[in-house]
Amino acid sequence: MAKPNSFLYISLCLVVLFNGCLAKRWQQQQQFNQCQLDRLDALEPNNRIEAEAGVIESWDPNNQQFQCAGVAVVRHTLECNGLLLPQYSPTHQLIYIVQGRGYLGTVLPGCPETYQDSQQQQQHQQEQEQEQGQSRRFRGDRHQKIQHFRQGDIIAIPAGVAHWLYNNGDSEVVAVSLLDLNNQANQLDENPRYFYLAGNPEDEFQQQGQGRRQQQQHQQHEQQNNNNNVLSGFSSELLADVFNMDVQTIRKLQGSEEERRPRKNIVKVDGELQVIRPPRSRQEQEREEEREHRQSGRGRDVDNGLEETLCTLRLRENIGDASRADIYNPEAGRISTLNSNKLRLLNWLQLSAERGKLNRNAIHVAHWTQNAHTVIYGVRGTARVQVVDDSGRSVFDDELQQGQVLIVPQNFAVVKRASSEGFEWVAFKTNDNAQITPLAGQNSVIRAIPADVLANAYQISREDAQELKENSQDIALIRPSRTSSERRVM
Amino acid sequence: MAKPNSFLYISLCLVVLFNGCLAKRWQQQQQFNQCQLDRLDALEPNNRIEAEAGVIESWDPNNQQFQCAGVAVVRHTLECNGLLLPQYSPTHQLIYIVQGRGYLGTVLPGCPETYQDSQQQQQHQQEQEQEQGQSRRFRGDRHQKIQHFRQGDIIAIPAGVAHWLYNNGDSEVVAVSLLDLNNQANQLDENPRYFYLAGNPEDEFQQQGQGRRQQQQHQQHEQQNNNNNVLSGFSSELLADVFNMDVQTIRKLQGSEEERRPRKNIVKVDGELQVIRPPRSRQEQEREEEREHRQSGRGRDVDNGLEETLCTLRLRENIGDASRADIYNPEAGRISTLNSNKLRLLNWLQLSAERGKLNRNAIHVAHWTQNAHTVIYGVRGTARVQVVDDSGRSVFDDELQQGQVLIVPQNFAVVKRASSEGFEWVAFKTNDNAQITPLAGQNSVIRAIPADVLANAYQISREDAQELKENSQDIALIRPSRTSSERRVM
Amino acid sequence: MAKPNSFLYISLCLVVLFNGCLAKRWQQQQQFNQCQLDRLDALEPNNRIEAEAGVIESWDPNNQQFQCAGVAVVRHTLECNGLLLPQYSPTHQLIYIVQGRGYLGTVLPGCPETYQDSQQQQQHQQEQEQEQGQSRRFRGDRHQKIQHFRQGDIIAIPAGVAHWLYNNGDSEVVAVSLLDLNNQANQLDENPRYFYLAGNPEDEFQQQGQGRRQQQQHQQHEQQNNNNNVLSGFSSELLADVFNMDVQTIRKLQGSEEERRPRKNIVKVDGELQVIRPPRSRQEQEREEEREHRQSGRGRDVDNGLEETLCTLRLRENIGDASRADIYNPEAGRISTLNSNKLRLLNWLQLSAERGKLNRNAIHVAHWTQNAHTVIYGVRGTARVQVVDDSGRSVFDDELQQGQVLIVPQNFAVVKRASSEGFEWVAFKTNDNAQITPLAGQNSVIRAIPADVLANAYQISREDAQELKENSQDIALIRPSRTSSERRVM
């Protein structure tokens, strides 16, 4: 038994263990024929929350495409110094950072608070505060690990894990989140939900819900002074005992003070957010990421107990850089994939992601995903996309533009051709190791099948079948040398 | 590769294997918005079967709370010498022994009959029989392993495994069972079902079902002579061939003889039940349990084949004793949890349990369960419980009393304060490793989040944020030193 | 750590990995009380497609029995030289070869094309072609591995994997396929679907669908020139670029040429299909199978990388031969089971199969399956079958004949008695390791339970209980020595 092998298998076992940590069950509403889709649409968000320091836009989860895939999509825009209030959801989430940079904080109960102020730092911060005219006496803080994120990152958040985002850059942060409602981790119903731990947040999916939620919304309009972070539902006296604080402060935690001027889900931080973090330059950051990445690949957690393993688990991986490309054709473009082999946590979440870039007029060849739905978000430019269902009908033949979402259901065949401005996208997949079968090119159906089967299946000559196979030497991204119109004349 | 590590991982793999043994699929009815609960209720059973030697009470599985959690709950009360007839269910089950002691027999097909009468024992038993005036000639018996159970035990029964319970103590046995309908092991629909192998049992969920069941019940009233153990549905002649017995005896197995005087689901054993069991005192029993427990922790099954592993799998663990507490505060109370790390079978069942005890006026701090529903059963005393949903609304703010069930859906926040008589509960969780995030105290959100995030999120001063964190030093169980009324004045 | 052990566990881990490769989620329509079945029926197919070189028959997936089990069943009959066009499905499939022999080709993307023409073979084939009057110049081919199949084989096809079947024998090939719609691998809705890569196939489940499909069918009748392989839904110009071929050929791939004379799903190959395959005699074939089988048992894939492991994964296993029997009674018959311990891929698919043969008047003793539905297909002869539900009602008491399907839901008890002509069947089970509990015989409930429990449960004497146990020495297949009528007189 060679060491590298035994090592690998042990890692797999660990992954399996984590997998077992969250639920293997779920309870979604299932509609009759929900994937009998006559037509797909490239969709824009249709709900918008204007918060103090940013905007939250969401796609209608009751749309049939979303119902078929069992997912919800939300886009957060954080202004500079904007703080997305601590929240959690019963679903696993993948977040793609479309632009900007900032901090991510997660709450992993049972994990230690490993970031602690040194005396020196405290003094430095106190001086800063004094410069900013704040003269409060300040005691040292201690909290759980904080992660930096930047454009091109995929962040994975397990169900029920509280987290917050903060924009510490000098431009807006734009983040697109996928909530996987049909995953067994979500034991509630098919409605997407966020539980907030602070503030007076609005419901991201409020205008789109049915039944109770509409009613509730109606009540809100009547009652006016609705506030709905989780703490607000408890009695102040009981919380005062729980937190060992006076009722006055508890009322602030419950958001009761904010009633007249709600800051909503994203609030503005006065000055800069003061958190403890290792000092570092951009190069240092990248070097550190590289190191973390190598370690994670080498299975750093083997020597540790399980708890520490969970606590040091990598939640984030960059797939925006060209250097991370898995498929690369300098003329046509590139694709980077992030699956559970690269980011172990995805095995637990049963999700993966793909980041693609097509140069002008280049084509991502026709293919289907064997074992997952694909949720495509247009990051830049436009493409003509065609999608075909099981009965050979074209259910989508249109442009997909920046900022739009298109859902390609499992096994539906899809082809993309970039416009003259090129096209970039991120795709979330509802499987941690999505398997793609291309119709043409390397690794394609055409090359795997014997020429005589092709000849008989398509009623073409054996020479044509052979030529079909030989012409399929390209990788999944191609830049046609001849235009379609030229070809038509041939 | 250090030995202890390799050992651990191998054990995990084994667990995974067992996990694979039962189905990864299910088919539950899913209702629209089934977890859009306006209000939760502390529920009492609303169906009751009075059997010959005990009572079966069940909670309405069509109640919206139960539908949201996808579970059913039943309470069995066995009189002394009461025998719950052999039965099985398509769902996994957890049983908590509220009081009493007795035997549990399970049928694991393919496992050997390892309990056998010695000649001596037979003679002894024959003598006993003769003393009791029974003069029948008696041949030696042999059967599968039998387990003792006692107050505070959790018993895990996999889907489809036939089992029986017998009260061999001198007081009633009270057992509360959770049936996990939404687990993939249950491939039938959302209706809870028990299949009986003997007797003329009544349907535990009869009065609550819809459609077919009501109709069927109606037919029963007309036909009167309904009998419904599984054998009764086969033709007597075919069974006579199968069992190689005369039709007369077969008719008895089918329960046809009992029509006029049905003993129903729990029958009285004449004298004491004569089963083979190792002789032992109470101390011996506890010592043996301790030994079994140690062995199971050390992975005794590594050297054995798979079948033997399944056959010697531990089905039972005591969480009632104070010595098993995982969280302990002599002033406030204690909590013992039973997850798949302690009882391996739970990994397969995807269920876990918690046994809690709050002293008078003590508080179990506000928290949410990340990855599971929580089904709380009041064992003793009363508590005031508050539950909050995702929109910050209080969906429960009431007393939870002994004998009542309250379901806290995944991610809903909950706090409990014991009354002046204290409160004890058992909670079933729909995940084998339920993760809890406390809002306050050690390991809480408040302590994991940087003080400046708290200050900005709650619009409190940084000093207050720091105090909030520093005051949260307690464990999850607290006994407030000051009363709420005192605090309110502050 | 002993070598054999470490070996076993590593294999398990690998299996777990594959398991993770396909989705852990699904989205089936769930009806209220869908398993509240008043009556089961032995069903024949009710949809039929007459193709150029064969017939496809399917069972109505909307039938309540099929809805309860969440499966669909299709029977393919391929004439000599018939080719089932390349297709794939979002569900896992098990195929049983009822009769005949042929080739199976699968497309595993990322796996190499390992079958290549040698120069010699090419010449030989060219000569053959010339003899057949074909004078085309022929270039060497290369394609993925092809497998032989023969009567008694179970073939496992994962979701989304394209495959084709060809009859190279001298009699019809008859194949029965199970599509597991409720498995999490299927992320689409409850409707069974095949995606075809060539030809003008008809929808196998067309006449049975509802809503959209009926409408669509209606449109077809009006439009007449419907063609529906997946390629037909893309624009010809885009495909011309993708395949780097002229539009004329692309139109052929799309099936547009075939409009007037559709060959449908199964087409006739002119002459014999020319694929590359190792030359071998029947004995060689069997010897090779034996070798493959041994290797797979010994875990040949441990030394290879993961991709190669997937690429050399065994998809096929014969359970038709008497030599593979797991339960054997020369007087009564035999049963062979194929579970994930024998064919590793089944762990991923969560399916297993059973092949049974009862001699005239022999009985397969009453039993229930703990963790799976059972889909029985009658292969030869007839049997009287009785099925009993949870309330002890007989829901089936009738003949099951060759060519019929009967579904026995999870935990329902079933007994079979062959007619005077005997009975053979294949059963698909919706669990990779279906656990059966017999009511009588070895390993049965009766033998596992203490005699005194039986005596008290059934109100029979302890002697009768003991006799009941002692008479249950037989294995699951019995040939009653006395007839039922004789017994009745006793």
Automatic annotation (TrEMBL), chains A, B, C:
Report the Pfam families cross-referenced here: Cupin_1 (PF00190)
Domain Cupin type-1 per the UniProt entry, residue ranges = 40-251, 317-466
GO biological process annotations for this chain's record? Answer: seed development
Q: Residue span of the signal peptide, if any?
A: 1-23
This protein's source sits in the domain of life called Eukaryota
Which CDD domains does the record match to this protein? cupin_11S_legumin_C, cupin_11S_legumin_N
Q: Where is the composition biased (Low complexity)?
A: 206-229
TM spans, by residue? none
- Which of UniProt's keywords are assigned here? Disulfide bond, Seed storage protein, Signal, Storage protein
Q: Where is composition skewed (Basic and acidic residues) in this entry? A: 254-271, 281-303
Q: Which Gene3D superfamilies does this one have?
A: Jelly Rolls
Query: Which intervals of the chain are annotated as region Disordered?
Result: 114-143, 204-231, 253-303
Gene Ontology molecular function: any one: nutrient reservoir activity
Record function comment: Seed storage protein.
The UniProt entry's sequence similarity note says:
Belongs to the 11S seed storage protein (globulins) family.
Q: Which PANTHER family does its entry note?
A: 12S SEED STORAGE PROTEIN CRB, OS03G0336100 PROTEIN-RELATED
Tell me, how does this one assemble? Hexamer; each subunit is composed of an acidic and a basic chain derived from a single precursor and linked by a disulfide bond.
Q: What is this protein called?
A: Cupin type-1 domain-containing protein
Which organism is this entry from? Fagus sylvatica (Beechnut)
Which lineage is the organism of this entry classified under, starting from the top rank?
Eukaryota, Viridiplantae, Streptophyta, Embryophyta, Tracheophyta
